[in-house]
Amino acid sequence: MRIAVGSDHRGYQLKGRLDQMLAGLGHDVVDVGTCDGERVDYTDFAEAVARKVASGEADRGILICGTGIGMAITANKFPGVRAATAHDELTAEMCRRHNDVNVLCLSGDMLAERPIDNMINVWLQTEFEGGRHARRVEKIRQLEDEITKSRCDQ
Predict the structure, then answer these.
(1) Where do the domains of the chain lie, and which CATH numbers do they carry?
(2) This prediction's pTM
(3) Which of 81, 88, 85, 92 is nearest to 123 (CA)?
């Protein structure tokens, strides 16, 4: 799987661990930065990962900032991106199973010292359940289409 990974300065160290872990599992990792611990804006890296996922250049994305929340808000502005924060294996599983989340957003501050290998593996291996959830994800896609169309009509 091709996975785009990005972080701001607060997620930089965790991103390094994730890059190694994902590559060790055989995934093609596209690291969009940041490349050091210097202060940066999370929005720039959320945009870079979201564009890769939205365009199909990456199958999935992982974003890390202080809480994961800012990354999720930014990434969700891109059609076709379904980003959510997860803090444990259950939220990682359920965001995939019920929402077909393709961009996982993590908290560098809360997860930096915790082992997260299992959480990431659960997220990568969990399939979208479909069924009633597919109808809901399709409604999200339709809303994105309507918003995009209304912007173009102005």
Answers:
(1) 2-153 (3.40.1400.10)
(2) 0.95
(3) 92
